[in-house]
Amino acid sequence: MKSFRCLSAMVFFFHMILIWGMLRYEVFAEMCILYSHYHWDHSGDPSTFPPSTALVVGPGFKDAFVPAYPTKPGCAIHESDYAGRELREIEFDGDLTIGGFKAFDYFGDGSFYLLDSPGHAIGHMCGLARTTSNPPTFIFLGGDCAHHGGEFRPSPTLPLPSVISPSPLPRLHPTVCPGSLFIPIHRLYEPSARATATDVPTSQPFFETSATGAHDVEQCQDSVRKMSAFDGRDDVLVIIAHDAHMLDVVTFFPHGTANAWKAEGWKEKGAWKFLGDFEEAVKEREEVGRG
Ligand SMILES: [Zn+2]
Prior knowledge:
The structure is a single chain. This protein is of the alpha/beta class. It has a domain at 6-151 and 206-260: Ribonuclease Z/Hydroxyacylglutathione hydrolase-like (Metallo-beta-lactamase, Chain A, 4-Layer Sandwich). It is built from six helices and eleven strands. The protein has a six-stranded mixed sheet, covered by helices on one side. Strand 7 (125-133) and strand 8 form a beta hairpin.
């Protein structure tokens, strides 16, 4: 198994550009830029890399962006992004699927898979990186499948805990936090069901994927549902590109690797931190409750 260095965490977590070759220090000749998708906040400027660096993109990219700007005025992609370098589009035309996603075994050895995850943008791909082999653990690199933890948590496989630790509301609850605080602010909360815990939506995400910003919202919702199933597994850490709550949870290159995320409890520390964004809503609700 190829080592999964912490640079992968730094690069993949933000998905600005995915430079897989750099994770393998000894094989700089195989360097490539791997787009989760083409949006400007994830793509950087490939023209600053040498021509030997291939640009790897997801399905539909060439149809949409070849030619690009300036031949096609107003295009989001510049032709200089791929001029003079290999532009490789992953086709996902094999039989391999993982968790319902069409999958591509990038190195052919099970160390890193690309997953066809359409919806947010043309050619959007997630990554599934093996972090240990025995027992197997993985990091699911969600890109922009979702933009906030509340779009895929809680879920049937990762329900809202009754007691959340560490507390996502340290100002209100310094040590542990009752999960019940968040039930009255859930989109599916019905006050009449307050007395019966089984009626409250502790297993549905706080948000639905919005059509705003999605290339195809139904495809995006389907990709989120599949990603959510990974999120419920103990052996998979799901991280989306814009989850800033993980910044003080993960270890960044060169200070360590991401391989030990499970032993170091990254998932327990980070999965519910997004609930801290609801602090004002929780306080407002409590004030309303006090009358
Ligand atoms: Zn995006």
